[in-house]
Amino acid sequence: MLNFTLKIWRQPQAERPGQFVTYPMAGVSPGWSLLELLDELNEKLMQAGAEPVAFDSDCREGICGSCGLLVNGIPHGQAGVTTCQVYLRRFQNGQTLTLEPLPGFPLVRDLVVDRSALDRIMAQGGYISVNVGSAPEANTIAIPPKTATQAFDAATCIGCGACVAACPNGSAALFVGAKITHLSLLPQGQPEAGQRVRAMTAQMDAEGLGHCSNHGECAAVCPQNIPLTVIARLRRQYWQSWW
After folding, report:
1. Could you tell me the pLDDT band of residue 130, with boundaries at 50, 70 and 90?
2. Which of 199, 196, 118, 184 is nearest to 151 (CA)?
3. pTM recorded for the entire structure
4. d(CA 211, CA 167)
5. 127: buried, middle or exposed (CB in 10 Å: 19+, 13-18, 0-12)?
6. Are 35 and 83 in contact (CB under 8 A)?
7. How far apart are CA 12 and CA 110, in angstroms?
8. How many CB atoms lie within 10 A of CB 207?
9. Is the dihedral of CA 158, 161, 166, 169 positive or negative?
10. What is the pLDDT of residues 84-102, one digit of tens each?
11. Cα 231–Cα 235–Cα 236 angle in degrees, nearest 5
């Protein structure tokens, strides 16, 4: 069994001041995930009549990204996984775990942030021109395997916001680059590709998110291992859209 000290940012709402609060947690299983540890803490807090820690959680299978936290200064706390897939066995017994909301997004409460800016950027992606009706034969449009692989790899982006939180500039370029790559590589997304990249980039600017300066921190913390090449494609496609 393991013992930890949780140092958690508590803030009832964005307009009110917040502070770190320390909670000792003793005798916990190394097989627990970090979110299970928070569940256990909240059980103790509610039994004591105290306010539980607010945090986001949904699938707990590492595929939705809603659980994103800053763990000891690192988005999700571990490269290549989401927060819900971080297990206590990777930490040292007696270690202090500092949990904070993801920076770069408006705070809602405690560890919960509002990442709807990413949804609004995605909404600017618009549509693709396809004929309605029954599904076409899978082999009707020949797509090179390399192209299909790149598109599917980019499509794994779950919009968790870790890239924004890790970037010194608070940029969403990796997120936007992944969506642009996903939507424009395949033939169905190419007719509106120029309009799409301009609209999504304009919305990213309107949300107040920063510009990419090639630090590479975004790709280092991405749980889906989205590569920096999607940012290069975003920039190239944006430039080409004006010609």
Report:
1. low
2. 184
3. 0.91
4. 9
5. exposed
6. yes
7. 6
8. 16
9. positive
10. 999 999 999 999 999 999 9
11. 115
